[in-house]
Specification:
mainly alpha, 5 helices, elongated, coiled coil, Mobilization protein
C-alpha cells in the first residue's frame, strides 16, 4: 500500500477543514434565522394578545423604528399593518 505524501495529506485535511467550515457557517446562519423568527413571533404575539400597555409600547416602538430600518419597498409592504400605509410610502 502506497503512503500518501505530506502534500496529499495536507490537501485532504484542507478539504475536510473547508467542508467543516461550510457546515459551521450554514448552522450559524440557520440558528440566526431561527432566533429572528422566534423573536419576531414573540413581538407579534405580544402586540396581538399581550396586555394593552406592553402592546401599545411595542406598537409605538415598531411604528417609530421599523420604517427607517426597512430599505426595500417590498419589505415595507409586509409590515403595512404595523407601520401604516402612509409610513410605508415614505
Amino acid at each position: 500500500m502506497a503512503r500518501k505524501s505530506i502534500e496529499e495529506r495536507l490537501a485532504q485535511l484542507d478539504a475536510q477543514r473547508k467542508t467543516l467550515q461550510a457546515r459551521l457557517t450554514k448552522d450559524e446562519r440557520a440558528r440566526d434565522t431561527r432566533r429572528k423568527v422566534l423573536l419576531g413571533a414573540l413581538v407579534l404575539h405580544r402586540i396581538e394578545d399581550g396586555n394593552e400597555a406592553s402592546a401599545d409600547y411595542l406598537r409605538d416602538f415598531i411604528q417609530r423604528e421599523l420604517p427607517g430600518f426597512l430599505t426595500r419597498e417590498t419589505d415595507k409592504v409586509l409590515f403595512d399593518d404595523l407601520i401604516g400605509s402612509d409610513k410605508a410610502a415614505k
